[in-house]
Design brief:
Elements (H helix, E strand, L loop, with lengths): L1 E7 L3 E7 L5 H18 L5 E6 L2 E7 L2 H20 L4 E7 L2
Parallel strand pairs: 1-5
Antiparallel strand pairs: 1-2, 2-4, 3-4
Helix pairs in contact: 1-2
């Protein structure tokens, strides 16, 4: 099971993925979405990220570009988690 958590704060957003989905297609799709987010933001936003083993984390300052990229990727994570609940879970938390 891969657990994906997105926390959107006032100033920055954090995306964390942990675990292995248990299905290569699901794991590949989740990894591709995460890497797409990094690719979209690298050099265009304040970004730090780490990928190690079955864990990945990205933290970036909120901006119009970052918010749009994160929203699209979060939609993808959510769709995969709904379609394959045995392999992925998704949580989005927004700071009020």
């Amino acid at each position: 099971m891969t657990d994906i958590r997105v926390f959107k704060g006032r100033d920055e957003t954090t995306v964390k993925m942990s675990g292995h989905a248990g299905d290569e297609r699901v794991c590949s799709a989740l990894s591709a979405l995460f890497c797409t987010l990094i690719y979209a933001l690298e050099g265009r936003a304040e970004l730090s990220h780490k990928i190690s083993g079955g864990n990945a984390e990205a933290c970036f300052k909120n901006s119009e570009l970052a918010d749009e990229a994160a929203a699209v990727v979060a939609d993808g994570f959510e769709l995969i988690a709904k379609k394959y609940p045995a392999y992925a879970s998704f949580t989005l938390t927004t700071e009020e």
